[in-house]
Amino acid sequence: MVGTEVSRKKFILRARFLCTLFVIAALLIVVRLYFLQIVHGAAYREEALGQYTAQAPQTPRRGSIYFSDKDGGLVSAAVMQTGWRIAINPKLLESASQAFAKLSPIVPLDRSSFFASAEKKTDSYEEVAFRVNDSAARKIRALKIPGVMLVADQWRFYPGEGLAAQTLGFVGFPKDGNVKIGVYGLEKQYDSTLIEASTGLYVNPFAQIFTNIESALSKDPTGHEGSIITTIEPAAQRELEKTLDGVVAEYSPRLAGGIVMDPKTGAILAIAGRPAFDSNAYGSVDNPAAFDNALVSGRYELGSIMKPLTMAAALDSGAVTPASTYKDEGCLERSTFTICNFDHKARGVVGVQEILSQSLNVGASFLAEKMGHSTQTRYMRLYGLGERTGIDLPNEVEGDLSPLGSGREPEVNYDTAAYGQGISVSPIEMVRALSALANEGVLPPPHVVSAIKYETGLTRPVPTSSGTRVLKAQTASIVSDMLVKVFDEGLLHGELKMEHYTIAAKTGTAQIAKPGGGYHPNGTFLHSFFGYFPAHDAKFIVFLFAVEPHGVEYASASLARPFINVAKFLINYYDIPPDR
User: CA-CA distance, 155 to 46, in Å (whole number)?
Assistant: First the structure.
């Protein structure tokens, strides 16, 4: 009996072991089928279609880029498309004329280029047409023209054409290479994530499974191949671009741009510059400067939108209170320099609210002097105006605060910095700094990518840095109240005030410096505008700027109405409840 019991136990153990092996094998087969049919199904179909044709030199496949709509849905922004090239072998081509006559009704061909290629009898491969779809390829294959080849091809395609082109960038050839890579925008910034180093079609299934487990557990989700999901909301992006097009059409600035951001999280919903381009046709752009995102890679003296930050620093440090007054004499002397209000008029004894409501340069200088140079500089740096924001876009520059304390006339440098002249910052730096007013004194981390989507379907968020407190919450609230008064009463005499929504806003009109220093007496100007709303629970901060606009003197005339158009769109589109 004992022997029988032992044998029985051994049999059960063997049976369990074999069952476990069968279960593991079945799971591996299921996982492998998932990768074959779901993950790589399209790639295998492409290979099957092309297995009887000459293959093109390998073009690296890339993950997709997605916009995110307001409801969390994904909208394709950059994808891979597959199709065909047409190539000819001049040695085997019996009649170039007959081949051209048969091909040209099916695909557009350049006649002169086609016949020039056909005459190269020493060559065996000349490409004559690109991006040919499957339907046209089937018709050409059926013709069986000697010397004509269909070559499997793939390329990057941007469904939105020019939408967010400077943010997306494009895929092109580097100066010293023959394989396309991301060369601008997110395509460049996330090139190592987007590019597929291997097709994965013939990878050992064990390796593939564990590779995907590794990507799921990795601390850095961008360190593995995948697609990227952005915070760009396509409808908001389209509205911003339409607004900028209107500014360009009416005032012909040399450069214009805008940003829409969530001031609490730093998520950028829209960012655009003009002039722009179509990512599908980047080769037709005459001036490559259009590829750069000036809102990140440009540095400017942005003018009076700096005054709310100066006011916040003075209030936060205790140098003034909301009830403080000063005597405004219209102009003041600083060594050999004269600082004046925009209209050179004195206001007499006025409250500090008027510094923002009437955009008084002399008042901003008063604030700088009351808090002192060291305190002013400390707050400027706390705002992050002399450093990169870390936004996930390439070529970001840092602001230049070097005139503070290092200029030929240090005192006047502090006075002018108080109203946004003499120091230069990038628009994204300024938007982050101004967001502290909308975010209870905390700087948010600006970012464009929210998550990485792996080929398995797994999506992992991209971690962002935590916000940094730079102002007391009470200070931010006080300045917000002051800016609401600016918008309701001061801006265009209250013409744009919204009955049921509080909007905190400020304009800026800055002189543009001459090369080598100084300003033209009647020179060129940069207009800027920012606003956030609802003022004490801000969902959005909107920034606009225009460099050298024509036929208009102040930003209140050029950018206030475009701003309110964007604001009304966002309020309606996101169904923001009234706050008053």
Answer: 13
CB atoms within 10 A of CB 125: 14
Q: In what order do the strands lie in the sheet with 268-274?
A: 268-274, 255-261, 540-547, 525-533, 504-511
Rounded-to-integer distance, Cα 229 and Cα 449, Å: 6
Q: What are phi and psi of 225, to 5 degrees?
A: -60, 140
Residue 491 lies in a domain: yes
**What b/e string do you get for 12-49 counting C-beta neighbours within 10 Å, with b at 16 or more?**
eeeeeeeeeeeeeeeeeeebeeebeeebbeebeebeeb
From first CA to last CA, the distance across the chain in angstroms is 89
**What 3-state DSSP class applies to 384?**
coil
**Structural domain contains residue 432:** yes
Domain count, the chain: 2
Percent share of the chain, pLDDT over 70:
84
Q: Residue 524 falls within a domain, yes or no?
A: yes
Question: Is 97 inside any structural domain?
Answer: no
Its pTM stands at 0.86
- Whether the predicted pLDDT of 10 surpasses 80: no
What's the pLDDT band for 8 if we cut at 50, 70, 90?
low
Q: Which domain holds residue 11?
A: 2-39
- For strand 227-230 and strand 65-68, is the pairing parallel, antiparallel, or unpaired? parallel
pLDDT (tens digit, 9 = 90+) per residue, 520-546? 767 799 999 999 999 999 999 999 999
Q: List, as own/partner pairs, every contact residues 510-513 make where C-beta atoms lie below 8 angstroms and the sequence separation is at least 24, other chains included.
A: 510/300, 510/301, 510/302, 510/303, 510/304, 510/420, 510/421, 511/301, 511/421, 512/301, 512/547, 512/548, 513/301
Mean pLDDT of the chain: 88
